[in-house]
Amino acid sequence: MPSVATSVEQVSIERPGVVPEGALREGKPLVLRGLLSDWPLVEHGQLGTAAAVDYLSRFSRDQGIVAFRGHPGIGGRFFYNEDLSGFNFDRVNASLDDLLSEFRSRKGDAAEPSLYVGSTPVRQCFPGMLDENTLAWGVPGPLVSIWMGSRTRIAAHFDFPDNLAGVVAGRRRFLLFPPDQVKNLYVGPVDFTPAGQVISLVDSECPEQAQFPRYRDALAAAQVAELAPGDAIFIPSLWWHQVEGLDDFNVLVNYWWRSVPVWKGNPMDALVHCLLAFNGMPAGQKEAWRALFDYFLFERDSGVESHPHIPPQSLGILGDIDETTAAQLRAMLRSRLGG
Predict the structure, then answer these.
(1) How far apart are alpha carbons 132 and 152 in whole angstroms?
(2) Residue 28 near residue 238 (C-beta atoms within 8 A)
(3) Residue 238 gets which letter from DSSP?
């Protein structure tokens, strides 16, 4: 990977299992060294793959899940095929227990296939594990997932929710890009992705300058962090992040949460609809719509009252939207889009 001069800011955690108040600030990545160092899962992970798998197996509820399997030649980089018509790996349905057994029996040989199990819900697949591996931080109801794999490279992508990701076995390297670097990351298709999220098409191990000339600007704005077992990283909403598993067996547990209620919907749905509505529109009309979006949406949070000329009781959806109003809006949208 090309050299990145800036490291993610870090703090050393004095009380493992407790996120310091005010540490997770909007738009500011942070490494929390030792946050999960008192977890039994971390302790078993440091004893080796067999111990980590044996511990996970205590809680696993054997069920079918989806795994990614790629031939040794991909070098752990789960990606598209050469012409972006498909992928360089297979999605396979397998039982959780069988996958754990396979991880346990692997020898770390370069001839073994790359194996990756992503975004598996912990409470569903490993019930009871979070009772022994706890985190105190005051965020209600986060989605907790576990990620397991051999040596892997997951292309830069973003998540809508905020993300606190903790390494519990193996080491991981994170390469982060601010949201405004999207123009320099050469993003692939929106509606045809390896795992649901749009990804950068640049291979960070050997970026092709002729094909991706602006990627060097993205690297100039990037931040890098390498995490050991017990460390965690806060990745703010919409920050692009590439993740590498550096050891033969790597396990990560992450927490996703939103700063706004779920009933407000996913902005990505709005973006997709905008791609439909604005496709082929003349440039002058697009500029006119840009002014409307700025006025009605992006300038509303500037701290200045946006519509003082409208009586508060008449603001409608220009005012604060509650859950009831949101349900009415969704019904209206369904009616309009149904045609």
Answers:
(1) 28
(2) no
(3) T
Q: What is the 3-state secondary structure (H, E, C) of 66-77?
A: EEEEECHHHCCE
Q: Any idea how long the chain is?
A: 339
pLDDT of residue 13: 97
**What CA–CA distance (Å, rounded) separates 41 from 16?**
14
Q: Residue holding tokens 């360089």?
A: 88
Judge whether 251 and 208 are in contact, CB under 8 Å. no
List residues bridging with 67 in a β-sheet.
92
Burial degree of 236 (CB within 10 A; 0-12, 13-18, 19+) = buried
Question: In whole angstroms, what is the distance from residue 124 CA to residue 122 CA?
Answer: 5
Q: Residue 305 above 70 pLDDT?
A: no
Locus of tokens 């902005």: 267
The C-alpha atoms of residue 52 and residue 103 are separated, in whole angstroms, by 10
Contact 29, 148 (CB under 8 A): no
In this predicted model, what pLDDT tens digit does every residue of 166-211 receive, in sequence order? 999 999 999 999 999 999 999 999 999 999 999 999 999 989 989 9
Q: What number of other Cβ atoms are within 10 A of residue 96's Cβ?
A: 21
**Over 90: is that where the pLDDT of 230 sits?**
yes
Name the burial class of residue 232, with classes exposed (0-12), middle (13-18) and buried (19+) by CB atoms within 10 angstroms of its CB.
buried
CA–CA separation, 27 and 7 (whole Å): 15
Report the alpha-carbon distance of residue 338 to residue 300 in Å, rounded: 29
Q: Which residues pair with 335 in a beta bridge?
A: none
Identify the pLDDT of residue 188.
Answer: 97
What are the phi and psi torsion angles at 12 (to 5°)?
A: -95, 130
- Overall pTM > 0.85: yes
Buried/exposed 19-50: b ≥16 CB within 10 Å, e otherwise: beeeebeeeebbbbbbbbbbbebbbbbbeebe
Residue 223, token pair as written in the block:
């931040």
